[in-house]
Design a protein that fits this description.
The protein is mainly alpha-helical. The chain is built from 18 helices and 6 strands. The chain has helices spanning 33-37, 74-80, 83-92, 98-110, 118-123, 131-145, 155-180, 194-203, 214-227, 234-243, 249-261, 268-281, 286-294, 315-331, 336-349, 352-356, 364-373, 381-402; strands at residues 4-9, 12-20, 26-28, 58-61, 66-69, 72-73. Strands 1-2-3 form a 3-stranded antiparallel beta sheet. A hairpin with a 5-residue loop joins strand 2 and strand 3. Helix 10 packs antiparallel against helix 11 (249-261), helix 10 crosses helix 18 and helix 12 (268-281) crosses helix 17 (364-373). The longest helix has 26 residues, at 155-180. The N and C termini lie far apart (61 Å). The relative contact order is 0.13. The mean pLDDT is 95. The structure holds carboxymethyl coenzyme *A (CMC).
């Protein structure tokens, strides 16, 4: 294999080294491009061909449908690990021992109280506010209540910020939902497991004991693991780039939440369920929606289909589809939406338009069906995605800071006006 790439420009040849990842992924290191060529930059809208960093956290191979966190397959982790173990693995690089996991959980619990004044901020939001906007605002607001978590460069200070946000974020998630539903804002119960506590904080009625259903706890745990990291996607890149200005972990996460909100990214899980509902209302007419998705004049896309990187199948979607069947079966729920989803998937998989473009169901196609079976409102689906993605964002932010990466600042090719003479307002 060639060790360098050669670029010819203006009659001169320039050499750039090839970098090789641990799974033999190759890239051209163009760090010296501008200096060597007198100002050339690369142009790559959507960064489809651009590696923004070297990372040791998540490996994925879109052609083969492979996803691994720190070298462990997503299939193994979803089946054998729990969410907190996976969070530790992503953030610190190794699976924890029993003692390490216990300490991590204890530290998280000890920092899980959210300042009571945050409730005043929540109070100011209208009930109609989308939970993702509220969550992003509250996460950013945590910066004001925890100023020592902003300027963190030592590993100890980072650890402190990490356990703080791991503890406080589920409280914000629960409060965001409860506020909309007019339920009192409560704290969890530190005697519970991390995911059990999330469910209790979300669903406990003030006048009832919350009864834990292990089927629901296990299903949520698995969903959170499947969402926990996905290398340099839109929200993760946002977290890294905001963090690269040393804005602090909570501000970086708040920006990541906003990025995740969009329907082309995490917001797709809400959009999928709304689409399936529309199809149901339309007498299950999947053909009509398939035609709309293929019509280039129609902006409609089949939500939950397609992926920037997976061009064969999304391994998370396979696990989730199986889980949706199991969970609904175990809970005794017969949801017609699941049948519509399966029918739509079959049609798309056999349709030339989708086959030619390698469009397969992604992680968001079936996840909403499980969230719905758990009693989670549709507009909270993307919030659940954020809860799962939290350790991934943290791990990526921490890696970026520990690697002392420079501030993210892409170049552009300017295509606007050349220098013009300024005309005063009366002369325009
Ligand atoms: N329905 C219909 N056509 C589609 C779809 C879709 N869901 N996705 C892609 N296409 C077409 C697209 O129109 C284009 O066609 P053509 O080559 O004729 O112009 C071709 O497939 C390639 O699409 P692209 O937009 O260039 O691909 P991309 O890599 O930029 O976009 C995507 C990836 C995920 C944004 C896109 O597939 C999409 O919009 N899917 C629907 C939204 C969705 O489910 N998002 C969740 C992604 S997974 C979880 C996450 O990232 O958070």
């Amino acid at each position: 294999m060639s060790e360098k790439a050669i670029l010819e420009f203006n009659g001169e040849q320039h050499e750039f080294p090839i970098v090789k990842g641990s799974e033999n992924e190759l890239g051209i290191d163009i760090k010296t491009l501008r200096a060597a060529t007198g100002g050339l930059v690369t142009l790559d809208p959507g960064y489809k061909n651009t590696g923004s960093c070297q990372s040791g956290i998540t490996f994925l191979n879109g052609e083969q449908g492979v996803l691994r966190y720190r070298g462990y397959s997503i299939e193994d982790l979803a089946e054998k690990a729990d969410f907190l173990e996976v969070a530790f693995l992503l953030i610190f690089g190794e699976l924890p021992t029993k003692e390490e996991l216990e300490k991590f959980h204890d530290d998280i619990k000890s920092k899980s109280v959210v300042d009571d004044d945050v409730k005043k901020i929540l109070d100011a939001f209208p009930k109609t506010a989308h939970p993702m906007g509220v969550l992003s605002s509250l996460t950013s607001a945590l910066t004001a209540f925890n100023p020592s978590s902003v300027d963190v460069s030592s590993e100890d200070a980072m650890y402190n910020s990490v356990v703080k946000i791991m503890g406080k974020f589920p409280v914000l998630v629960a409060w965001t939902m409860r506020k909309k539903q007019g339920l009192p804002l409560d704290y969890g119960d530190n005697s519970l497991g991390y995911v059990e506590n999330v469910l209790q904080m979300m669903f406990k009625k003030p006048n009832e004991t919350y009864i834990h259903n292990p089927i629901i706890t296990e299903a949520l745990d698995k969903l959170l693991i499947l969402h926990a990291d996905h290398e340099q996607n839109c929200s993760t890149s946002t977290v890294r780039i905001v963090g690269s200005s040393h804005a602090g972990l909570f501000a970086s996460l708040s920006a990541g939440i906003s990025a995740l909100w969009g329907p082309l990214h995490g917001g797709a899980n809400q959009a999928v369920l709304e689409m399936l509902e529309d199809i149901k209302e339309d007498d299950g007419d999947t053909k009509k929606y398939m035609a709309k998705a293929k019509d280039k004049e129609d902006p409609f896309r089949l939500m939950g289909f397609g992926h920037r990187v997976y061009k064969n199948f999304d391994p998370r979607a396979r696990i989730i589809k199986k889980s949706a069947d199991q969970v609904l079966g175990q809970l005794g729920i017969d949801d017609p939406i699941l049948d519509i989803a399966k029918g739509l998937e079959q049609e798309a998989l056999n349709d030339n338009y989708f086959v030619k473009r390698k469009l397969y169901p992604n992680v968001d196609f079936y996840s909403g069906i499980i969230y719905r079976a758990m009693g989670i409102p549709t507009d909270m689906f993307t919030v659940m995605f954020a809860l799962g993605r939290l350790p991934g964002w943290i791990a990526q932010w921490r890696e970026m800071r520990l690697n002392k990466e420079p501030i993210g600042r892409p170049r552009q090719i300017y295509i606007g006006e050349n220098l013009r003479e300024f005309k005063t307002i009366n002369n325009r």
